Amino acid sequence: MRLLLAEDEKELANALEAVFKHNHYSLDVVYNGADAYDWASSQEYDGIILDIMMPKMSGLEVLEALRKDGSIVPILLLTAKSEVDDKVLGLDLGADDYLAKPFAMKELLARVRAMTRRKTKLESNVLEFEGLTLNRESFELAYRENKIRLGSKEYQMMELLMQNPNAYLSAEQFMQKIWGFDTDAEIGVVWVYLSYLRKKLQVIQAPIKIKAARGIGYKLVHRMEEQELE
Fold first, then answer.
1. Which candidate, 22, 92, 110, 8, places its Cα nearest to that of 50?
2. pLDDT-based confidence at 219, cuts 50/70/90?
3. pLDDT digits (tens, 9 = 90+) for 133-188
4. Which tens digit of pLDDT belongs to each residue from 182-211?
5. Given this model, what pLDDT does residue 185 score?
6. Which residues, in sequence order, are CB contacts of 35 under 8 Å at separation 6+?
7. Residue 90 in contact with residue 78, Cβ under 8 Å?
8. DSSP assignment of 149-201, as one string?
9. Is residue 88 within 8 Å of residue 59, measured between CB atoms?
10. H or E stretch covering 217
11. What are 92-116's pLDDT values in tens digits?
């Protein structure tokens, strides 16, 4: 699950980033409305969190511009507690929800879960590939009776692989969608986490392999299917 957070209070933004990443979200953070609009227009997100009071463009202006562009991505507004008019205007402009400052982190997480569920209300909480399942609530990877809980980056990578069962995903795509454009991480971190996932597939005795195609990328295949193709 990939989110964009636009918040000009850097201390708050840093705290929110830590909380979301701890809860298995991939998060990009920007500190003004112009950057929020640019990132939201050029990237694919499962949800956006916009502070209303930001430099360059307000959260309301970003919201209005995105909706005029035809974007249907769920958007939650962070508002000052007393600004009822902003809440009403935000909802009228197409916001999915709002949350007044100060707020509890647990409530913010619950609001984000709710609005992203509405976007994918027909989507199951369990992804499945050839008998292999990934539970989006417990972060458990399972095959038959064998289960193992994945770490944050492992979960996000497996989720991408299972959401795109017939397509190769490049290392650069993993970097972009999970670590973000402004990460200091090297491309080799993708290979490290793919190695972790391969070991965990072995632990649960799943007949599933992460197949690598040189210069193309990675995808999930059933071991029997791969043998037939060889």
1. 8
2. very high
3. 998 878 899 999 999 999 888 998 999 899 888 889 999 888 877 877 666 778 88
4. 667 788 899 999 999 999 999 999 999 999
5. 77
6. 6, 56
7. no
8. EPPHHHHHHHHHHHHSTTS-B-HHHHIIIII-TT----THHHHHHHHHHHHHH
9. no
10. strand 217-222
11. 888 888 888 888 899 999 989 888 8
Q: What is the DSSP letter of 32?
A: S
In contact, 29 and 13? CB cutoff 8 Å: yes
| Amino acid at the residue 196 | Y
| CB hemisphere CA count around 211 (13 angstroms) | 20
Could you tell me the domains of the chain?
Answer: 2-119 (3.40.50.2300), 126-229 (1.10.10.10)
d(CA 134, CA 150) in angstroms, rounded, equals 9
Q: Which two tokens stand for residue 182?
A: 């402004």
In the block, which residue shows the tokens 């508002």? 79
Model confidence pLDDT, tens digit, residues 41-52: 887 788 999 998
DSSP 145: T
177: which residues sit within 8 A by CB, 6+ positions away? 2, 26, 156, 160
